[in-house]
Each structure stands twice: as C-alpha cells, then as structure tokens.
Amino acid sequence: MIHIVWEFVVKPHALEAFEKAYGPDGAWARLFAAYPGYRGTSLIRDTLNPRRFLTIDRWDSMQQRSDMLNDTRDEYARLDAEFGEWTESEREIGTFS
To answer: Is 22 exposed, middle or buried (0-12, 13-18, 19+ CB in 10 A)?
Structure first.
C-alpha cells in the first residue's frame, strides 16, 4: 500500500468548505473511489496551526493511482482549479509505503 501526502494552508474564510471537499467523503474522495485500488483518504489538522492540514490518500499501488490520474485528467484539473482559491499554499509532500 502507498500513501500520498499533501500539505495545505487554508484561507480563514474557506476552512469549512475545505474540510468538506478534502475529507474522507468529499469531492476528491468520491473521484478517487471510482477507481480500483483506492483505499480512502484521511484529513488531519495541525494542532498548533488550525489552518494547516495534511491529506493522506491510500492506494494499493502506484500504478492504480497513475491510472486514475490519467483517466481523470480533466476532472482532476477542474477540481484543483475550483478549490485552489481556498488555499494559501499546497504541496505534495511525497509518496510513502
């Protein structure tokens, strides 16, 4: 299993919307759930900086995640653009096993 970890710093006015969209039942998780190998998303909040979050997406394999990224290129870009206004920063921390 692999874990894809992202870090976000969210604008104060967008905290609630961000948590809904990026949480385990949000738009990203629904997109990923249509693909084999997706095992869920965790959203965790920094205890010292309540505007900082990590998402952890779990996949059985890198290939399955890559297949999803290839198949959903347009929808992925649309969601990223739509939700991008909610964050001050966004970075992929890495892939872990």
So the answer is: buried
Query: Whole-angstrom Cα distance, residue 11 to residue 1?
Result: 32
Q: Does domain 2-96 have CATH number 3.40.50.620?
A: no
Tokens describing residue 26: 């949000």
What are the tokens at 74?
Answer: 């347009």
Reported as a single tens digit per residue, the pLDDT across 40-79 is: 999 999 999 999 999 999 999 999 999 999 999 999 999 9
pTM equals: 0.94
From the list 51, 47, 43, the residue with the least C-alpha distance to 6 is 43
> What residue spans define the domains of the chain?
2-96
